[in-house]
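ATP-binding cassette domain-containing protein: structure tokens wanted.
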Amino acid sequence: MSIETNNLSFCYGKKAVIEELNLKINKGFNVLLGPNGAGKSTLFSMLTGLYKATSGVIKINGYDLSHDRAKIMRTMGVVFQQSTLDLDLSVKQNLIYYAALHGICSSQAIENISEILTQLELTSRLNDKVRTLNGGHRRRVEIARALIHQPKVLLLDEATVGLDIDSRKMITEYVGSLCQTLGICVLWATHLIDEISEEDQLIIINEGKIQAQGTSGQLCKTHKVADVYQLYRTLTTSVEII
Ligand SMILES: Nc1ncnc2c1ncn2[C@@H]1O[C@H](COP(=O)(O)OP(=O)(O)OP(=O)(O)O)[C@@H](O)[C@H]1O
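Answer:
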């Protein structure tokens, strides 16, 4: 259960947005914090194999992405920044279609996540069209869908953006608890500092480079700052945070 990058770089044309990035995270809740434009989504696109790195190596669960992408995809769940649910299908149809892409039959799919559906309070919504769900419930469906093939690594790109306080709290706490119950490696990209607790592993990224990595409490001590907000201000030049 790990994600590792070695000297990873990516350019859009001539513009370098990820520069010789060396990252190593293990199981647990790992937060990738950075301002708008820091390179979080670009990094996610590379980790999921959507973008090919300009140079460098990505290893996930010990497999090299450039050689073993199919193996990696079998052990990886992803929630992208933009919703990818079909609004005109029911929750269940969205889930079983995705499961089928992983070669999982519909009964097995629902069995795999029956407990998750209960915990996410989705069981009663299974036959509802996604269009009738609010933003918080749609996000929960995407999380359940990302877990349907029982991944070892879960990537979430700004999964709580646009949600109300209660939905954000529910989702961050639930994903945090998955690290304990399933023992998986979560990479949670955000620019919302109130989602970070002292014991979370924190990676601060700015302008395509890692500025700091460690538990948030430890990093605050090392950089002699009172809280994550001060830490963030010290290590990035942007003030665009909520
Ligand atoms: N398709 C593209 N072509 C050119 N530049 C791009 C493209 N996509 C992103 N960029 C630039 O790459 C940099 C990193 O963008 P990216 O979306 O990865 O950042 P981010 O940290 O995810 O930001 P946000 O929090 O706003 O989603 C930014 O300067 C952005 O303008």
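DSSP finds nine helices and ten strands in the chain. Residues 12, 15, 17, 34, 36-42, 191 surround adenosine-5'-triphosphate (CB under 6 Å).

Cheers.
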